[in-house]
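Progress against Task 2.4 (sequence-to-structure conversion) is shown through the following example record, which the project officer requested during the mid-term review.
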Amino acid sequence: MWERFDNLRWYLRWPVKWALLGASVFLVSFPNPLLFVRHVEHWRDPNAMIEPHLPALQPWVDEVRGRLKPEMPPPKALRAVQKFVYQKVPYKFDWETWGSADYLPTLPEVLKMGAEDCDGRAVVAASILQNLGYRAELVTDFAHVWVKTDKGETMSPRKRRSVVATKKGLEVHWRTLTQTLPRALGQGISAFPLGRELIVLAVLWLVLLRPGVSWPLRLLCLAVLLEGLLFMQASGGRALWAQWWGVLHLGGAVVIMLVYGRRAARNRAGHVADATLENAI
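Structure tokens generated for the chain above:
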């Protein structure tokens, strides 16, 4: 069956293979598709997650207000709110709390879960700040989410603002987005559970396999793919050389498997043609 499928035209064969790979990436990243749908809906208007007057938040607002002195300058007040949120909401990755690669939670969900990553913490901070009278909104570059107010920014603001969530929706700065996305991808790969990534790696390897390619070459390419992934994992999202080394290994293994797979297909086609000619003679 595999050989029959491999003999199909490339425009019939490759869409199926890429669909299989895409489905594996999606299901590994978002095992709960309904949660992914909610995540996308939330990002259509991220500032809607900010609820300054939620009753369950009021005790925290009162506690923060007690820590802020009337003469405290805005930068110091923003740092105080940040410190408070970090204490109340311990940091946990989304796959630890939600079982997904990413999820933008509502304020009630953050309070119920009790732990979150940068986006959930930003939702809490923005809600508290709005209750205190600040004009607060969420800002992201797809690697981090923080809070922008009329008095400054808080929660590790970034210099490059690729995407700004405003009352009118998402404001995209495409020039900086092309610079921040590779860094965000590197951070995501380095922090994502290795076990899940190995599933995607195995599917990629299987998709690239073609009849006629020797098993030593197949296993060598698998080892190179694995090495590339481990380098990207070890980079921690910061060591640029390790990220590029990993990308080169991954890309090189893919190219080798494509080239030798195509060569094996041509050789197979040549043998079939020779056999047909001999039978005709």
